[in-house]
Fold this sequence. Notes:
- The chain is of the alpha/beta class and 366 residues long.
- It folds into 2 domains: 8-241, 3-Layer(aba) Sandwich (Aspartate Aminotransferase, domain 2); 244-365, Aspartate Aminotransferase, domain 1 (Alpha-Beta Complex).
- 37% of the residues lie in helices and 16% in strands.
- The strands form 2 sheets. The protein has a 7-stranded mixed sheet with strand order 1-7-6-5-4-2-3, sandwiched between helices.
- α6 (152-161) links the parallel β4 (134-140) and β5.
- The chain starts with 7 loop residues before the first helix and ends with a helix.
- The structure holds pyridoxal-5'-phosphate.
- Pyridoxal-5'-phosphate (PLP) binds next to α3.
- Residues 73-75, 99, 140, 144, 169, 171, 191, 193-194, 203, 205 line the site of pyridoxal-5'-phosphate.
- Belongs to the trans-sulfuration enzymes family.
- InterPro entries: Cys/Met-Metab_PyrdxlP-dep_enz, PyrdxlP-dep_Trfase, PyrdxlP-dep_Trfase_major, PyrdxlP-dep_Trfase_small.
- This is Cystathionine gamma-lyase.
- Its cofactor is pyridoxal 5'-phosphate.
- Keywords: Lyase, Pyridoxal phosphate.
Amino acid sequence: MTTTPSGDGTRCVHAGEPAAEPGAPLVPQPVLAAPYHLGDAADFYGRATNPTWRALESAIGSLDGGECVVYATGMAAISALLRVTLRAGDTVVLPSDGYYLARAYVREHMSALDLDLRLVPTAADWDASHVRGARLVLVETPSNPGLDVCDIAAVAELAHAEGALLAVDNTTATPLGQLPLDLGADVVVASDTKALSGHSDVLLGHTTTRDVALLARLRAERTASGAVPGPLETWLAHRGLGTLDLRLTRQAENAAALYRALRDHPRVRGLRWPGAAADPAHPTARTQMRRFGGVLTFELESAAAVAGFLGAARLVAAATSFGGLHSSADRRAQWGDPVPEGLVRFSCGCEDPEDLVADVLRALRA
Ligand SMILES: *Cc1c(COP(=O)(O)O)cnc(C)c1O
């Protein structure tokens, strides 16, 4: 692999590529094996190691700036981190406005540990009281679905002063948008089901860290728990990653165009996109993010208004994910997010900006 410093497009295209060898495939191929012929090679059984994982881990690790461990889903990565780091009676800080299943997992599936679960809004005025006594602080920035941000370096300093680990859910930003480890975080977690894979056909997640002891525990726990990704999904994610720069560029272009079109729209309230200079998250986002993504949120009048909008739009799928090639949107309150009934999370795809804006404006008139 080349070690020359290079731009985002170059890094995505070449991330995790095998050494050039005559007769070998140009790009990594999926290896589906369960058992291997035994000997003194790395691979012996597919729940413990797999060459297709290693290729993607090398790719994502090179972008995140650490050692990556891939998982079957984003929640598999998050729950593995919680299981590996938390002991009975520990305090864990989670975002009150972040991905809802992280909170639900601690409440409903780790109750035997009697954890002290402290919920802090992403946009809190963070100080020592928020992290006091914590073993693990997990932030999500930009948060999902509210798109608030927090200052990763400042929270890292607070967490470390308490002896806590700081984890950042980097799903929305992707490694091209933000490098939490460079900002002082101890570990990145992410759902690569979203923009990193980008084609709405794969579930995948990862952790990345520079902490070798934590890395070893995460790897060992993955082998023991079996939360491993399928090699075919891993390979599809790697193939998708190659175009992440191109896709994010178009998605952000679409988000900027849609933001301009919706900013003064009479039916739209609470429009948020951290990339906009007028967004409350922008001052902090600008200092720690390298670029912005394609997800916006806004409010329509009611749940019925959102259903009407999604029914009328031709280019916007009613679907609950984000970061894919296809524009999509969903009403978050239906999943139990603590948000207004009419709040829409809108994920800009890679359509042309004029087409997408025209379709959204037409659907809002319908
Ligand atoms: C989707 C998502 C997850 C969960 O990822 P899965 O791949 O669906 O398990 C976690 N965090 C954030 C911010 C997400 O958007």
